[in-house]
Amino acid sequence: MRYVARRLMHSLLLLAGVSVLSFVFSELAPGDYYSELQAEGRVSAATLSALRSQNGLDRPLPLRYAIWLRSVAHGEFGYSLAYQGPVGPLLAQRIPGTLLLTCLSTGLAWLLALPIGVWSAANRGYQYDTILKVSLSILLSIPELLLAIILLAIAVQTGWLPAGGMHSPGGGSLIDLLRHLAIPVTVLTLGLLPVLIRHVRSAVSEAMGSAFALAAAAHGIPRRRLLLRHVLPVALNPLISLLGLSLGSLLSASLLVEVLVGWPGLGPLFLEAIFARDFAVVLGVVMVSTSFLIAGNLVADLLLYRADPRIRV
Amino acid sequence: MGIRFTLTALIVLHGAVVFAGFLAPYDYAEQHRERPYAPPTTIGFSPWPYVYSQDSTRVYPIRFFTRGRLLGVDPGGYLFLLGTDGYGRDLFSRILYGGRVSLATGIVAGIWALALGLFWGLTAGFYGGRVDGIMMRLAEFFLALPWLYLLLGVRAFLPLHISPAEAFFLLVAIIGSVGWVRPARLVRGLTLSLAERPYVEAARAFGAGPLYLVRRHILPETKGLLLTQATILIPYYILAEVTLSFLGLGVGEPVPSWGSMLADARQYHALVAHFWMLAPGVATSLVLLGYIHLSDLLQSRS
Which has the closest alpha carbon to B185: B230, B236, B231, B135? Predict the structure, then answer.
C-alpha cells in the first residue's frame, strides 16, 4: 500500500510540474488566441486589448495559474476562448473516443502478439520465422499515416466500410460502431504489432535459453507445456513494463489516426486548439494525455509488483 | 542482408536527395497547369530512351546532361517519372527536393538530441548524488507526455506562420527536444559504472580533473552506444517531421516535404485513380526500413 501511495504522490507531482512548465512556456510564447484574430484584420487593436483584459490574459502568470488551479478543482480546467465555455466538458466528450480506440487496439495487439511472438521464438532459425522477421521489419517501417490513407482510400473506393467518424447519421447500433472502428483499430494494431512481437520474441527466447528451461527440457517436459507453463511466465515480467511504455506510442499514433478518420477523440480537438491558439484547450489535452500515460505506467508497475516478488523489497 | 548493403542503400538514398538539384528533371515549384494529376510518363527504349507527346503523335528523345540537370526533354514533351500532383508539379523532382527537408530535419535533430543527451547523461552520471537526482527528475518531464502530444504541445506555443528557413530550425529544435531522454539515461548509466572503474579511480588519484577524466576515459566508451541510439533516433525523427508537416505544422509551401506532399494524397475518392500521390509515403518507408534494418544489425552485433 505504501508503494501505491508513493507512486500516486509522484504522479501528482509530475502532473503539477507539467502544468507549471506549460504555463511558463505560454508566457514565453509570442502571440495568443487574439493575435490570430488580429492577423485576420477584422478586429481593432483596442477591442482586442479590451477582450484580453476581460478574459484575464493580462494578469501576471502566478495569478493566472492560481485561477486555473481553482477551475481545475471545479472540474472546469480553464476557459476556452474559441469554444466560449469551460474546457472540462469538452474534454469529457472526447475522452471516451480516445480510450475506446487505444484500449481496443492494445488488447487486440497483445492478443495477436503473444502467440505469434512465442511461436516465433520457438521456431527460431526456421524459414517461416525468417519470413515473419522480414515482414515485421517492413511493417515497422510503414508509417501509420500511409497505412491509414491507403485503407481509407480502399474503403471509399469499395464502399465496404465507412470512411470516417464514429457513427453513421441516424445509426447508433453496435454493428455500425464496429464498422466505424474497423479502420482506426486495424491501423493502430498493425502499428503496435511489430514492436510487441519483437519484444515478446526476444523475452521468450531469452527465457528459453536460461538454465531452468534447459533443465526442464532435459527432464523430458513436453515442449508445449515447457513453453506455456514454465517459460512464458518468466518472460512476462519485462513485457508487463512494456505495456506501460507502449501506451505512449499508441496514444501518439491514436492522435494521428483520429485526425485522419475524423474520430471524435482528443486528437482533432487538440489540433484545432493548436491552430486557434486556444491555450486552455491545449493545456487540458496535455494534462489528460499525461494522466493517461501515468495511469498506464502505474497499472503496469502494480501488475509487475504482483507478478514479481523480487521487486517488493 | 548485410551491413554493407544497408549502408550503401542508405547512402544512395541520401545522396539522391542531396544532389536533387542535378538529378531532378524539374524544379520543385515548376508548375505544368495543363497536366494536373498526370500519370507516370511511359518511356520507350528503341533505340534510345524517348517519351511521347501528349497526343502520342510526336516523339521526344530523353536528353542527358541538359540545362544543368541529368535528365530532360525538349520543350513540348514531358518527363514525369512518378506523375504529377494537382498543380502539375513533377512528383519525382518534388520527392527528391522534399527529402532534403525531411532527412535533414531527422539528422540534425538526431545530432542535437544526442548532444543534449550526452551532455545531460555525462554530467548527471559523473557527479552523481544530488546533481544526478535533480537532473534525472527534470528529464522525466519529457517522458511524461506521449511523444506526439509533446511535439504538438511545444509547437502550439510557437507562431503558426513563419518562413521556411525559420520553420526548419524550429522543427529541429522541437523534434530534438523529444526523445533525448533515453540516450541521456543510457549515457548516465554507463558513466556511473565507468566512473568506478579502477583505472578511472587511479587517474583521479593522480590528480586528473573532471574534464580530463571525461574526455580521456569516459567519452570514448560511449561511442558505440551513441551510434546505436543515432540509428534509432534518426528514423524516429524523420517520421516526426513527416507527421508534423502532414498536419500542416511544418515547413510550408512552396518548399516540399514528404509530410506535406503526403497531405495532398488525402483525397480518398480520387486516390485510387491517382495512386502515384502515395510515392512520398513509399520514399519515407524505404528510408525508415534502411535505418531500422541498420539499427537491428548494429544491435545484434554488439
Answer: B135
